[in-house]
Amino acid sequence: MKGQEWYQADEVAAEYEDKRFSGGGRLIDRREKGAVLDALAPLDGKRVLEVACGTGRFTVLCAERGADITGMDISDAMLREGREKARAAGVADHLEFMRGDAARLPFPDDYFDAVFAMRFFHLADTPAKFLSEMARVSKADVFFDTFNRYSTRSLYNSLLPMGSRLYSTSEVHDLLRGAGLTLRSDAHDFVLPYGFYRQLPGWLADPIRDADVALGDSPIGEYLASVSYWHAHV
Questions:
Q1: Distances (CA, A) of 158 to 148, 151, 155, 164, 223
Q2: Which of 71, 132, 138, 233 could form a disulfide with 179 if both were Cys (CB 3.0 to 4.6 A apart)?
Q3: Who's near 221: CB < 8 A, 6+ residues apart?
């Protein structure tokens, strides 16, 4: 995995959300959470796994909506942040955080109703193996996002501390076929890359995001999008 040492540092975990999801970054947080809920809801009573859960943004969100959810990550520091978030939200008794390797998920086949990963596949050195493992332990839904090769993301990708693996649509379709998954739906968003929004104050980010959405809804929007959300079925 790219940037493992950077990702697992205590100071990165402590500052992760403040740096990414404050100011203009709150628009990213809202969109990502909406994408997860659109794909997996209703969650009440479902057994769900989040791979690479980080600080538990989505793990806690799903627990609040009644999911029996496990959040797994390689970073102890990120998991500590997640447990604190769960306690603050009052759902610590309704979820589990565990350290684990996404390439060898410690669960039997068809154990979960849904498996998802956000902000993960751009770091994957062996994406086919990771996706196949997600498909193996899910009996229904698999959901994940990718950063797109032919987009504004590519303009600053090399400057990021971990870099990013960028995907074309055909590459994702090949990965889905290889994992035995059928695509149910896909969505494409953010003509302007995430890094741009994180530099903006909220008052300025809102109107720019409105223009971004309008362009994204146009006939060429899908081809300009820097992020794609993929909802597949086993």
A1: 14, 14, 8, 8, 21
A2: 132
A3: 188, 191, 215
Contact assessment for residue 169 and residue 217, using Cβ atoms and an 8 Å cutoff: no
H/E stretch holding 62: helix 57-64
77 contacts 8 by C-beta, under 8 angstroms? yes
Q: What is the DSSP string of 89-154?
A: HT-GGGEEEEE--TTS-SS-TT-EEEEEESS-TTS-SSHHHHHHHHHHHEEEEEEEEEEESSSGGG
Dump pLDDT digits (tens) for 162-177: 668 999 999 999 999 9
Give the angle 175-176-179 at the CA atoms, nearest 5°: 85
Round to whole Å and give the CA distance between 46 and 39.
Answer: 13
Residues 113-134 have pLDDT tens digits of: 999 999 999 999 999 999 999 9
Closest CA to 35 of 185, 176, 162, 160: 185
Q: CATH number of the domain at 4-233, out of 3.90.950.20, 2.40.10.10, 3.40.50.1390, 3.40.50.150?
A: 3.40.50.150
Is the whole-model pTM more than 0.85? yes
